[in-house]
Amino acid sequence: MTATLGPAGYEATAYRSNRKTPEPSEASQQSTLFRKSWTMGPPLPKGKLSGVYPPNFLKTWGPKEVREDEESLRRFKAESEAGGEPFNPVGWINGDSIRYATLPNVSWALLWMQHGGRLGFYILFPIFIFAWLVLWFIEPERDSFSQFFSDGILPTLLFFFLPMLLCWGIGRFLEKKYPKVVYQEPKGPLWELNRRTGMVTLFKNPEKEGQSGEIRGQAPFHEWDGYLLSLPDHQGNIWYRLVLVHKTQEWALPMNQLLAATTNREDVLAYWDLIRQYMDVTKSLPDIPLFEAHRQLDPTTRAQDEYKGRDPLYWRHMSEDDYEAFKRENRTVLANHSWR
């Protein structure tokens, strides 16, 4: 879909919370199984914003991290302009849209191979050492330690722990010596939230031949509802995550790529408010370090910042101590906020 932006820089389909939007005229295409899988209880409210932010967003994208990311971006662009590898990102977060892309399957396989081998060895090897010691002392009639080693320990080392060490070592070697083999370029985007057009877009699987960048589903933000999904783990902890579900089509967008599932329900509710504020062109971009470089490029945000006299480098000029104090205050307000 090609957007034609209006004079204000936003398309007619852009989400505006002060505009009454009609309910979808088409009948629901959703099966009972789909509803049970992706919706629990009523959709999350689209009323007044809380004014607080998910702590993980503030931790991941603080002033220092944002400055480092921008420096890396400038370096990549400069290297590309100087004749290096083309700089054609397929995923980004800016003031126009949030487009998510991830590493291809082969990259994830190599990373899982390395870290799976490392974690498996760290966790299981001490357990096996303890088990071997117990077996040695409860069976004193064994002929010798060499027999015990060859019969019980050596096979486990060769056929169980050696593959773990090989996976860990090979994966680590590739990551250090040939990082481009491990961290390959994403093949295409998975989804996009576009502030300028107000559209939520789901893309087809980029791993499949010829599908990269092709749209699987697309609709304005007001046709999507937010749901708080909860799932218990084997220890009884409840994990929460945010998912966007279209009102009539069988389209569901799990949003746990930017905020992973968490046991803190309030974090996900703050995340929903952040997404709503980001998409709402009657409001400025969320005032967090992640979006500061894009504020002057967004019409609504620029107008409101100029009216308030906001320092364009407010976050850039903030000290680490002041930012830590801001994060603590945000966590306090988040915990004490009365969620509807």
Structural write-up:
This protein has 340 residues and is of the alpha+beta class. The chain has two domains: 32-97 and 222-336, no CATH class; 106-182. It is built from nine helices and eight strands. It has helices at residues 32-38, 55-60, 63-81, 105-138, 145-177, 179-182, 265-279, 299-308, 320-336, and strands spanning 92-93, 97-101, 189-194, 199-203, 215-220, 224-232, 238-246, 252-254. The strands form two sheets. The protein has a five-stranded antiparallel sheet, with no helix packed on it. A three-stranded antiparallel sheet has the order 6-7-8, covered by helices on one side. α4 (105-138) packs antiparallel against α5. It is globular and about 85 Å long. The two termini are 36 Å apart. The relative contact order is 0.18. Mean pLDDT is 89; it is low at 1-7.
Summarize the model shown.
This protein has 9 helices and 8 strands. The protein is of the alpha+beta class.
What topology emerges from the helices and strands here?
Layout: H1 32-38, H2 55-60, H3 63-81, E1 92-93, E2 97-101, H4 105-138, H5 145-177, H6 179-182, E3 189-194, E4 199-203, E5 215-220, E6 224-232, E7 238-246, E8 252-254, H7 265-279, H8 299-308, H9 320-336
Antiparallel strand pairs: 1-2, 2-3, 3-4, 4-5, 6-7, 7-8
SSE ordering: HHHEEHHHEEEEEEHHH
Q: Count every beta strand, where a strand is a DSSP E run of 2 or more residues.
A: 8
Distance between the termini: 36 Å
SSE class: alpha+beta
Strand order of the largest sheet: 1-2-3-4-5
Mean pLDDT comes to 89
The domain tally reads: 2
